[in-house]
Design goal:
two-stranded antiparallel sheet, 449 residues, ARM-like, protease, mainly alpha, carboxypeptidase, 2 strands, single chain
Length: 449
């Protein structure tokens, strides 16, 4: 077919180092793009199981000069991935497509100004194949592509067409904790708070992606502390109340849930919980949850709000000698001095439960992150007892053997000796089981006797 012919022609051009080959490659890729956009048969030939179409396109992007015709090849790849779905994205990842696209992104960013259409295509592709590649965060950091998307967002806040795919890529990058810390130091948290804001029906898709990205970033304790220091906990509560009061038809439940996810992430640290209490967050979430109880579709909002309130409610020691406790009781022994006595002498409204959620910093190395899952699988608990004899509970009789003999008549099968009849002498003989006997024991009938 024509598609197979063009692919073979493009494969030959990739082996040619002549400068004129670039013009030929651009001409061939434009024809391939036209075919896959206009003919279903061409798309199937490009993406069929035994086809090498995706490999040829990727090798073309890797070998040839970038500025001549890469836009056409990327457009072909973009159309195939967006049209044919996830399995093709996995193929691109296995063929090394992530590395190639990141290198193209770095090369394209050196132009001043960068080609907007090309940037949109590259970021859309990376956002699509990113979830299929578990190491995309590390690859982006090594290639120097981590801050390219962030800088594009900073300089194009009003350009929705470019900002949306860039935020989608940042959301993929933020799943890596090292990347989240690095992006936070470069001001991504402050930038995202410029995008999210009060209720507005414009750009709701951008708002949703920005909230998802922010929630992923705030899982880092460093970014969460930065958000608390900037006073963003109060801002998130204000945004949530604004969306709750205006979204009377509940069309934007996902955005409201995205705000709650951000609050949930930032309250993972003690400073965030304290800022939440100081901002009257308990009352706000309680009142909004009461309004949502009548609508079944808003159960995710109620559940998330409940998790946040349970996490942020002050924790106290037992017993509670205050009105907070339904019961008043004393421990059997209370030390006169020492750390325990100091705890029980504290005022009743003090959160006296040890909380070291803020003690650990985000100083994780990339190797630790990559091997985290493998370590969990290989790790063995030394506390698990493997001796079967020790695991068996010891059964001690409540009475002696002599006392139990009085019940012997009720359980004769435990003490009597089973016998079988000798067919010759017609007398019972002691039963001796055969060690090699594998089948069931057959008892002779009266007719056989």
């Amino acid at each position: 077919s024509r598609t197979v012919f063009l692919l073979s022609q493009l494969e030959k051009i990739n082996l040619d180092s002549v400068l004129r080959a670039s013009d030929n490659a651009r001409h061939v890729t434009s024809k391939i793009l036209h075919l896959v956009q206009s003919q279903e048969k061409a798309r199937k030939e490009m993406t069929s199981k035994g086809s090498t179409g995706i490999e040829v396109i990727l090798s073309t992007l890797e070998v040839k000069s970038f500025h001549f015709y890469s836009y056409g090849s990327i457009a072909v790849l973009h159309f195939i991935i967006m049209k044919c779905g996830g399995r093709r994205a996995s193929i691109v990842v296995t063929k090394g497509g992530t590395q190639i696209l990141l290198q193209l992104l770095v090369t394209a960013s050196r132009d001043s100004p960068p080609d907007e259409e090309l940037m949109v295509l590259l970021h859309t592709l990376l956002a699509k194949i990113g979830p299929k590649d578990k190491k995309i965060g590390m690859k982006a950091r090594i290639n120097g592509a981590l801050n390219i998307s962030l800088n594009l967002v900073k300089h194009n806040l009003c350009n929705l067409k470019l900002v949306l795919p860039c935020l989608q890529v940042l959301r993929v990058y933020s799943t890596n904790s090292v990347n989240a810390v690095s992006l936070g130091k470069n001001g991504v948290v402050e930038l995202l708070f410029k995008i999210i804001g009060p209720f507005s029906k414009k750009n709701t898709s951008l708002m949703k992606v920005a909230l998802d990205t922010l929630a992923a970033l705030l899982k880092s304790k460093t970014n969460a502390r930065r958000a608390v220091d900037k006073g963003y906990v109060q801002v998130l509560l204000t945004i949530y109340v604004d969306w709750h009061s205006h979204d009377s038809r509940h069309r934007y439940m996902l955005i409201r849930k995205g705000v709650l996810q951000c609050i949930r992430s930032v309250t993972n640290i003690k400073l965030g919980r304290k800022a939440f209490i100081d901002a009257n967050g308990m009352k706000i979430l309680y009142n909004t949850s009461q309004d949502c109880l009548a609508v079944r579709t808003l159960d995710p909002l109620v559940n998330t709000s409940s998790l946040i309130m349970r996490k942020c409610f002050p924790k106290n020691r037992l017993p509670l000698p205050t009105i907070k406790s339904a019961f008043h009781f004393q421990l059997p022994v209370i030390p006169v001095s020492g750390p325990a006595a100091q705890l029980y002498n504290l005022p009743p409204d003090v959160d006296d439960v040890v909380d070291d959620s803020d003690d650990n910093d985000d100083a994780e190395t990339e190797s630790e992150i990559e091997t985290e899952n493998d370590d969990d699988k290989d790790e063995q608990n030394d506390d698990i007892e493997t001796d079967i004899n020790k695991l068996k509970p010891r059964q001690e009789l409540g009475r002696s053997i002599e006392e139990l003999k009085m019940y012997e008549q009720f359980f004769p099968e435990l003490s009597e000796n089973f016998q079988e009849w000798d067919l010759v002498s017609k007398e019972p003989k002691p039963f001796v089981p055969d060690a090699n006997l594998s089948g069931p024991i057959v008892v002779p009938t009266a007719s056989e006797e």
